[in-house]
Specification:
It is built from 16 helices and 17 strands. By secondary structure, it is of the alpha+beta class. It is globular and about 70 Å long. 44% of the residues are buried.
């Protein structure tokens, strides 16, 4: 699945030489090549070249796209009004050029996350890499067999926790554009909020990994905020995208010395070095009636709706490991992998309103019928939930707890029969003309295709690879 391109109708054009000159000047000032800009706009490089040379006209939609991607003031492209920008000091050429460069790089990042992730994986020693994925992991994080969710003990320390690296270091200045002349945005998340805000974008309390291993059966957590994660993880991804635009290469050794922030991180698994704030990604496997093979749910993450892992496929549900609200009482009430997973099922699969922090009382899990249905099915053995491991996306170093839930066909129909196709983060997809609930066949052919030929988020790919590896123990 690809995002739709810009319309190319012949009408509504303006003087092509003027538009082409402006586009070329801003593109060169931003340090972007034609291929990157064309890809960000959904047009061909040939068409962009013709616009710049003045042999093709740009439509209104395309001019709006140039303004958005390259940071060009709309008036310079013949677009009336000031609706697309704010008046004031941030309209200066230096600010526009800085923001234009940032937008081009971020658009390019969101269109090439898969390739960039594979390149980033080679930055780390081979023993850290999870085969067939762009995930890295360490000793103790990846068990020899799936671990029943109930056998894992979580400990929570609510005291203050410092981090040596926050994303505000000088090494991140190339990925933090100018906010006003001479002053850059303080954090990467601030730049996203003002220049490229997705539909879902807010900083919420989150659980921060402090230590422990999966193999020991104990994981220690503290507290942090979601933007603590974003300020480091997305800055790392943006830095690599910018380096690859400036220095096209498929050899990671060529990037040595060009990724100062990644080099500053050092040991990616050190929880004191930076805030490691994990998400929970769940592969949902449906046991269909024989002779139909089991299937799994697959999700397309819409770049206009999400701030991370955009423009790729992922398994579903997936969400941050965090309390359901800002309330102090929810820190303990929601400190459970299973409770977080059930909330994500409710929101992403059934389309129920998100627990967005606006409630003034904790969730009453004991009397929540959906939670009780799934929990009772687990007790009866009709639903099983396992932890497959713990790892980091090599591109962003964002952490994920990898889980798998296997559901009997009858239970799936009863609980998820009315699942949605579109949710607030993207689209649930199936093979051919199948319903979203039918999913994708959990077969060697489908797994290989997703791991080898499709853009796949690292955590989702890891869940799929590990579940296939352990399929005989997960599906009896």
């Amino acid at each position: 699945m690809q995002t739709s391109g810009w319309l190319r109708r012949d009408g509504d054009g303006v003087a092509a030489p003027t538009v082409g000159q402006v586009v070329r000047e801003y593109r060169l000032a931003g340090g972007a090549n034609q291929a990157a800009v064309a890809d960000a706009l959904g047009i061909t490089q040939q068409f962009l070249s013709q616009v710049e040379k003045g042999t093709r006209k740009a439509t209104l939609e395309q001019r709006q796209g140039f303004a958005r991607v390259l940071g060009i003031p709309p008036e310079e492209l013949g677009i009336a009004g000031r609706a697309h920008r704010r008046a004031g000091a941030d309209d200066t050429p230096a600010v526009a050029t800085s923001r234009g460069r940032w937008r081009v790089q971020r658009n390019w990042l969101n269109h090439h996350r898969g390739d960039l992730a594979r390149l980033a994986t080679e930055w780390y020693p081979a023993e850290y890499r999870l085969p067939r994925t762009s995930l890295i992991t360490r000793d103790g994080w990846m068990p020899a067999a799936p671990v029943d969710l109930d056998s894992l003990r979580l400990e929570l320390d609510e005291g203050p926790q410092l981090a040596e690296i926050t994303g505000a270091e000088s090494e991140t200045s190339p990925v933090r554009p100018l906010r006003v002349p001479g002053l850059a945005f303080e954090t990467y998340s601030a730049a996203v909020k003002h220049l490229d805000p997705p539909q879902l974008f807010e900083s919420r309390p989150s659980y921060r990994y402090l230590g422990g291993t999966v193999t020991s059966g104990v994981l220690d957590f503290g507290l942090a905020s979601y933007f603590d994660k974003l300020d480091v993880s997305e800055a790392l991804a943006h830095e690599l995208a910018g380096a690859c635009i400036a220095l096209p290469t498929t050899d990671v050794s060529d990037l040595k010395g060009h990724l100062p922030f990644r080099e500053l991180i050092g040991d990616p698994f050190d929880p004191a070095r930076r805030a490691i704030i994990p998400a929970i990604t769940t592969l949902t496997v449906r046991l269909r009636r024989y002779p139909a093979p089991p299937s799994f749910l697959l999700h397309w993450r819409d770049p206009s709706r999400v701030a991370t892992a955009a423009g790729v496929y992922d398994v579903i549900p997936a969400g941050e490991f965090q309390p359901s609200s800002m309330g102090l009482w929810d820190r303990r009430n929601d400190f459970s992998l299973w409770r977080n997973m059930v909330r994500e099922y409710s929101e992403e699969v059934l389309g129920h309103p998100e627990h967005d922090g606006t409630r003034s009382v904790p969730i009453d899990y004991t009397n929540w019928s959906f939670y009780q249905q799934l929990t009772a099915a687990r007790a009866q053995g009709k639903v099983t939930a396992h932890l497959l491991g713990f790892g980091l996306d090599a591109l962003t170093l964002a952490a994920t707890l990898l889980t798998v839930v296997v559901i009997d066909d009858d239970v799936f129909d009863e609980i998820f029969g009315t699942m949605v196709q579109f949710n607030e983060e993207g689209e649930v997809v199936g093979i051919g003309d199948g319903r979203a609930a039918d999913g994708v066949p959990f077969t060697e052919e489908s797994v290989a295709r997703m791991l080898e030929a499709e853009p796949m988020a690292a955590p989702g790919a890891a869940c799929l690879a590990l579940a296939w590896q352990h399929r005989h123990s997960l599906i009896s």
